[in-house]
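Title: Request for sanity check on ABC transporter ATP-binding protein prediction

Description:
We are preparing a figure and want to confirm that the structure record we downloaded matches what your pipeline produces today. Could someone re-run it with the sequence below and paste the raw structure tokens into this thread? We only need the token string, no images.
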Amino acid sequence: MKDELIIETINITKNFFGNKSSGVNNITLFIPRGKITGIVGESGSGKTTLLNLLSGKMVPDSGDVFFHQELLPDRENARQEVHRHIKFLTQDHYEMDLNATVWENVKAGLSDKDLHYETKKVTEALSSWSIQHLHDQIFSKLSGGEKQRVTIAKALISTPEVLLLDEPFNQVDARFREGLQQDIRTIVTKMGITAILVSHDPAELLSMADQLIVIKEGEIVESGNPFELYEEPKLLYTALILASCTQLSPAQARVCGITSRRGSVVVYAEDVKVSKGIANSWLISRIFFKGIYEELIVEYKQVSVRVLNMAKGKYKVGDKVSISIRKYHEFGKWAR
Ligand SMILES: Nc1ncnc2c1ncn2[C@@H]1O[C@H](COP(=O)(O)OP(=O)(O)OP(=O)(O)O)[C@@H](O)[C@H]1O
């Protein structure tokens, strides 16, 4: 069955100060209902601008945004009913009352003010987001991660149809980030909410999103399911954004035993294996400890290759090794 669409944009453009290289250009986009869409792209590529346009916070210079096949009105007009169904979470918590308690903040997200219903709903929301113990704490005194949970609880308490998230986990430390990501995924899926997520962290997008949109210089350059985009990117840009990898020219690729006539070869770190072989011509020049794994930089004839190594501690800087490459990606000269 075809996915039902909830948001559609037709050729939307938003440039700042008439500068065509800023904002977004001519984007046509379909957002399926009940799915998580991730937006990825280098810094300044237009991700936040796109989110602002999808929320109605910004109005396109040209083109249209449709919500349920009707033109999305400007968010400036706060009385527009439609905006109750689209919640936008940013890191600045502008929608929160900094001096109010967690309970009061979450309660303010309710549209129905019936007292019995209110207590029940707020209690449930605090429990869903594991913040019941913070109920009488003042919002401004919370940690970054706690603030984020409270903000999400408030946004979701009235079950919006769409949740837009701009870098929602930036202030959350690594220990809690994965839990929060998975909680959002579980709750959003359970409630049938459509989520659109902008993040700089490819691992976050790959694990959370059902579909990914790759944006460059204000344009969508590639889109698809995260697994396929990662495994078989059509563009060099996508590979470099999503993977920890090495980009090689055809001449450098030859040093690695790869024959390619195309513009660039990209080798993902997990596709390179190091071992003590016969030739051992590669030198381990750096080791980055990453916790559960290491990344090694190996060098030979002025070519450096990044390697993911699960066997932590097995090698040290200065060791000579052999490498074998299981898989690589080739991109034409013009595959931007
Ligand atoms: N309000 C604004 N006024 C002027 N230029 C803007 C404004 N908002 C965005 N831009 C410009 O538009 C381009 C895209 O910005 P945007 O914030 O959408 O990118 P981004 O992909 O979200 O970047 P980042 O990942 O760094 O947050 C940038 O060149 C930025 O300088």
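Thanks, this matches our download. The pocket of adenosine-5'-triphosphate is lined by residues 16, 22-23, 41, 43-49 (CB under 6 Å).
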